[in-house]
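Exam revision sheet. Question 4 asks you to relate a sequence to its structure. Input first:
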Amino acid sequence: MPPSRSGPEGRTKRRRRVYACDSCYRKKIKCDGTLPRCDWCYHHSIPCTYTRNQEVASLGSPNAQEQERRDTPSTPASDTSFSLQKGSGYNSTPEIFYTPPGPQPLAPQGFGTDICFAGQSLGNICGFNGLPFFSPGGLKWIRERTGDDGSLDSYSSGAPHVWPPTETRDEHESRERVELPNKKVIRQHLEAYQISIHGQLFPFLNPPCFEHTIRAAYDEELSDLSPSVKCARGCIFGFMAMASYLTVPPREDAIMSADKYAREVQDLLPDISREPVNLDGLQAVIMLCFCCTALSGDVFKMELLLSWAVRYIFHLKGNLYPTIAKGDHAHAKLHVRNLFWICFIQDKFFGLRTGLNPLFDPMNCELTLPGGEHGHCDPRSFHPSHQQKPSAFITLIRLSIVQSEIYRGLYSCPALRQSDAELLGTIRRLDSALEEWWSSVPVFTDDIHNDPTMADLLFKMQYHYCMAAIHQTSSRCTAWVRNQDTRAAGSSLAISIGASRAVLNRFLDTSPQLLGQFVMFCLPELTTSNIHLFSNILTNPLDRASWTDLELMRVTSRHVEDHLWQQAPASFTAQVRLAERFMGDLQRLASCAIVKAQRERGVDRVMGEG
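Answer key, structure tokens:
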């Protein structure tokens, strides 16, 4: 018998080196031996040990660079992640964290979920409780930099905020059903919503179409546009739930009405799902999804509602530009197209915030903007309603198209396999696309609308947020993983940090008295920007800007609390309080990192003098 088969040590070494890598050997599957990684290791994003005993190629070769880049993915390590230390030839390389093979917990992936900073994958942001789910490797790095024993561990297991609030069977059966509001009240809310900035940004309703909805819900007068009483009632309840906190000053009775109306829509969802696809059902689902986005951090419910709305959009052909906009239902066709764009906007915002795969594939959608031109139309040429200022809607559409390109170019599966040169080229291209969009954004402040400042602040904040989303991916570069000072990657990462500072500074420009509800739509951006500054402080605790960034984080946290009005919804209040507590922990840990680094530098100086 050959020596290699008589001893376990020799047998293991020879057979595993020649026939399979470690992972395929343990799984008892055939290893194809493809370099630099076999098929199993490549599709599970784990390091392949097939060539572990061979001489490592030069670091400057393209194959070695590609293998090193693939072995340090932007995808966050999950709660079952483990660390893999490089060999002795890479002692200066920061520790890299990988996901083991096998079934993994469901976790979002992308900018909103993965904070990869200078080679450190910190984990998920905006999990089911709306806050980060840090990987064990990221938490270990934080403990090493701060000396803390792990005060961030609790954020990975928080329960989601459910909205509308859950109720028991007895509560459901004994609950008094909400009656449809007076028609006059509905029309007043509709008029107020149409002239508000929310109506300019999200034209959920079309007045002529909505008249058919009112007749179907109140008088059971059905039509082609409103063929179902249940769907019409759901549409009206959904609009009242949204308008209760967007078109009136925050009052306790209005907020309670929002919860009640939303619960009525939720109770009608089974009936809506049994009806043929129609406009009223689509509007009800979209508006309930919008309410859920603003008032709770229940990512799973938002995703389900948005998925439902997207399928309705495809059934109603809203993904296609209406070539014939004449006839009896021309306004309905144009309105379905508006609803497509609203869903598209929510999908791209949602994807960039959470990292979840987008629901709309641009290849299956005509991205012709309202007005008939592809991305370069005059906003004044489109008037979905006589009260709407269309430039805000078109500007938001163009932003969502840029966000779609950001996700596809930097956070999709093919994007994670780019080489350093390809990655930096994509960053430059997307940076130019974002600047082109920003140069086309008009100023919305005028004497006609009472709250145009919100649109200006929203677009400014989203500009800086997308800038950070683009440039923070430079931390995937091999130069950062090896802790080298490469000018191109370093400058891009510095742009990301500067953009995160700008997001927080733009939020500080908001007035809680005038824009008390603004924080409803920007908590994920604020959380992500705080983590960027926190990561920068931990990476460079002795930098002169660290204390300045820490103070900016503290001021932002206090400003968030100022935006929380007394009668805010309970689920939203809980979400804000959780975000405040998390930001407070980041501030405390950042302070610990600075003090620890200063203390260690003092010890080094004393030892050097001795």
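Marking note for examiners. The longest strand covers residues 82-84.
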